[in-house]
């Protein structure tokens, strides 16, 4: 069965890297349940083990598999093998890097085609610029997500806030549903994304990363240092 994300959906990204005390499927599974009870309509999760754990929340799962290489910059579901692992774990939608940067394995267009035809799943194209969004639409991505704005060499340095301008620019040019993702750190910013033309909003750090949230408070309490 393929899940459709509903318009106006909040998607909560439940991710914790290996150095985070909350790393692991038990914690991410609990985060997903808390997010569901709070009104999330989808979960984004990294790696097959976490995807399996967050499925218990009964929401559409957007799976990614971060695979880092020392010689190429692309790490979000860079290969078909990574997509297959996520499909086996039960992901409903596969998110993948759709920038034109150097990578190992298939080009994003080919990955999108294979994910649709061989795995029967929909795709989230993670992009960083308007041109990449336009290309992702041509590739047949189901959703276009602003995930990588501020994280590619040509969109760095990363601004403090989210890229609402990219959402407006995409909304004027594409028919594919746009997902706002990356630094939507307050409810007001998430609302602004919808007003700018986003179909759904992904929030990660500010909901599921207590260490990072604590850092923000600690900095301010220490006088902004
Ligand atoms: C650039 C990259 O690798 N972003 C990742 C993509 O899955 C995650 O680390 C982010 O937490 C996610 O995109 C949500 O964004 P934010 O945590 O800012 O709400």
TrEMBL record:
Gene3D superfamilies: Aldolase class I. Its EC number is 5.1.3.9. Pathway: Amino-sugar metabolism; N-acetylneuraminate degradation; D-fructose 6-phosphate from N-acetylneuraminate: step 3/5. The keyword Isomerase applies. GO terms for biological process: carbohydrate metabolic process; N-acetylmannosamine catabolic process; N-acetylneuraminate catabolic process. Keywords: Carbohydrate metabolism, Isomerase. It holds the Pfam family NanE. One of its GO terms (cellular component) is cytosol. The keyword Isomerase applies. GO terms for molecular function: N-acylglucosamine-6-phosphate 2-epimerase activity. It catalyses: an N-acyl-D-glucosamine 6-phosphate = an N-acyl-D-mannosamine 6-phosphate. PANTHER family: N-ACETYLMANNOSAMINE-6-PHOSPHATE 2-EPIMERASE-RELATED (PTHR36204:SF1). Belongs to the NanE family. Converts N-acetylmannosamine-6-phosphate (ManNAc-6-P) to N-acetylglucosamine-6-phosphate (GlcNAc-6-P). This is Putative N-acetylmannosamine-6-phosphate 2-epimerase.
